[in-house]
Amino acid sequence: MDFRALFMGLAFALMWSSAFTSARIIVAHAPPLGASAVRFLIAGVIAVSIARALGQSWRLSTSQARLTVIFGICQNALYLGLFFVAMQTVEASLAAIIASTMPLLVALAGVLIQGNRLPRLGGAGLVAGFAGVALIMGNRLQAGDVDPVGVAYCVVGVLALTFATLSVRGAASGGNVLMIVGLQMLVGSAVLFPVSALIETWQVDWSWQLIAAFSYTVVVPGLVATVVWFLLVQRIGAVKAATFHFLNPFFGVATAAILLGERLGPWDVVGVLIIMLGILAVQLSRQPVTNPTRK
Fold this sequence. Notes:
single chain, mainly alpha, disordered C terminus
């Protein structure tokens, strides 16, 4: 892994993790599902326009179209929509921690559903990662510092993200990556607009904090992070790129603490470190083993 790949991986992890802090600001001033629908509409139109300018076609194969719809519903409508709703009562740091379990859940699904074999290091990482989450959740629930309903939304959301992650490989095959990214955002917007119209009151507290957080969320985590991720995967491969996910718990809680002033207890810090080590162990166990004697 060269310096450019290292920089890209760090930048992606920071951008992805910072989205929880900006989302927390957004939902304090606007309806969560409505704001998400508008966000996906703007980001989707931008992505599709850029893709068309680059010569990418929006004529997808039947398989690509089906998986793009699934990905748009699972990642944008369910995962991000539910997390936006949850963060009305759940702190950004806790939401980031729950979302960061996605690599663990993907590895677990690979074992349980796809029959993949996980080395001992990966198995130990799975146990450690979930133990870290249990430590944080148990301590916060005991202290009464967490909304169980909001946490339930986050859990359902991260399960939807796990399913989306497992299906994106097929959706992105054959090129047109940026076009597919834009189209799945438009799918998420199309799903969330009617739901928001039915259950939410569109009352917006306009402020510079809302405008800044919304603009940042659309451009940086929504578009730039996605492009950086695919460039990183193209440069070093999906397995090595996924290793950077172990930084998400740290960046998520650090951003929330710095920008929102969210407090972290000693058990939160211990739990985050355990989760990071668990994710790192799982990802390292999936690295291909090379034989140094071969030329």
